[in-house]
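Case study 2.
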Amino acid sequence: MKRKIIIILAILAVCILLASPVVAKQKVKVKISTDDCVIKNKGYITIKLVDNNGREIRSSGKIKYTITDENGYYKWVSKSYGSGIRVKYDVGSYTVDVKFFGDSKYKKATKTESIIVEDNFNPYTYYDNHNWGLNQEVDDYFDDNYWTEEIYDDVDDPENEVWDL
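Prediction:
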C-alpha cells in the first residue's frame, strides 16, 4: 500500500515539474516614449509592452492607461492591448500611468513616467531617418507597379508623336 502511494506521489511530482514551464508566465516591461509628428505643435505618446529581450509582444490582455497634462486634465482608456498604443498629443509635459493586467502568457506590469512631448519634426531630415511614408507598403506598391519607364515608352515611338510641327 505504501509503495502505491509513493509511486502515485512520484508520478504526480513529475507531472507538476513538466507542466510548470507551460504554466509559468513571462515577465513584461512597459516602455513609454514619444515620437515626432508631421503636424506642427503635436507629437505622439507611445506605449509598448516588451519582453526581456526588448521585443514588443502581442497580447489580448487588458491594459489601462491614464495620460494627465500639466493642468490636471486627463484621458483614461481601458482596452485590450493587441500591439502598441500610439496617441497624438499637443506639445507639453504629461504623466503617463500604465497598468497591464496580464493574460495566460504574460505577467502583469505597471509603470508611471513623466514625459515631454516636443515639436522636433524637421522635414529635411524626416526621410533621411528612414520615415518613408505613412504606409510603406502602399508606397512600395506604387513604386513597383506604377513608377516605371514603360509609361513613357510612347515618347520614342514615331507613330505616337503628338507634336507634329
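The CA atoms of residues 102 and 110 lie 10 Å apart.
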